[in-house]
Amino acid sequence: VGLDSEVxxxxxxxxxxxxxxxxxxxxxxxxxxHPKGDAQIKDNRIAQTTLGxxxxxxxxxxxxKVKDTFQGQLPFLFKVLSVNTALSxxxxxxxxxxARLHAQFPEHYPDTxxxxxxxxxxxxxxxLCGFRPVEEILEFLETVPEFHTLVGYGAAQELRASVxxxxxxxxxxxRCFTRMMDWEKKVVVENLNELVKRVTDDAAAGKxxxxxxxxxxxxxxxxxxxxxGCFSIYFLNHVVLNPGQAMFLGANEPHAxxxxxxxxxxxxxxxxxxxxxxxxxxxxNTLCEMLNYSPAPASAKIFPCVQDPxxxxxxxxxPPVPDFTVMRIQIPASVKQYNIAPVDSASILLVIEGEATxxxxxxxxxxxxxxxxxxxxxxxxxxxxxxxxxxxxTLFRACCLL
Length: 402
Hints:
acetylation, 6-stranded antiparallel β-sheet, metal-binding
């Protein structure tokens, strides 16, 4: 809310004339050319236009490979998220499912694209991601009777009997999760209230409730009372990222962002299938059908970055999809001149901290870069930075390395 939000701080940093209201939430900063949030180009040398319009007029700015592969469209959407209240339990469709959903329900699924995405933590960042190892789910079924009630005896037994057989486990997990999600609201509320009362009483008596995720349960219930999504913490991994750590969410991967600030990059889409922790449109049947039910530990959900072999200042987050790559550029205090290398792709550059004067062949005059500055850099253009801040600079760059 207000200037407590990293999004609001970056907006004000990039545009000192921006007005931030004290009691208004600022949750997302979009940087890209998606029709639902096409960026405004702020350049006093050209008439006011959006990034999408600019790219349509000058498609060569994308780079020849990107232009041809993605039909003249910028293939990624870059964001900053500030999450104070949990975001919905959701997954994103693959291209085939996206096309089908858009044809059937265009009001809920606005485009035909897939939406793989990556979150890179700016602060300590919490999320739910992917199905837990089966052993953990079975333990919760034993220690949380209300959870067992919603899953049902038969489905729980099937899961227990499937251990050691990956295909059977995936099917059993699907049955367990679908059965829980299908209960009528009244039954969910009764069981959730019983569990919340028990955890609250135990905590008040000084008992340790961490074995059943007591603190997280109470937090989610306070935000979404009576919501079936509160029980998802017993199916999904609770992942905590430190600044600089990332998680990659491929098609059909169940997830929810719970708390913190992150950089997010994704294919240029706004297709989301939701099923809990949300007042928005819920599509339980589609979600339960589409999910990836392969269990894996929380540690497997942390996506590694690699050092750029040609530049010690650059860390690469290079996911297994062609649509985007993210670079973190950390320029140490000892370096005062730095060249942002050209790549054969349009890129979007965001300054997280530090100040510099920038120059490039494409810019007729020098640019002032400071916290919150967002630059669109055409393919094969470099930007020379003269760093003016003492502690160095941190920038993130989204591009498409085909």
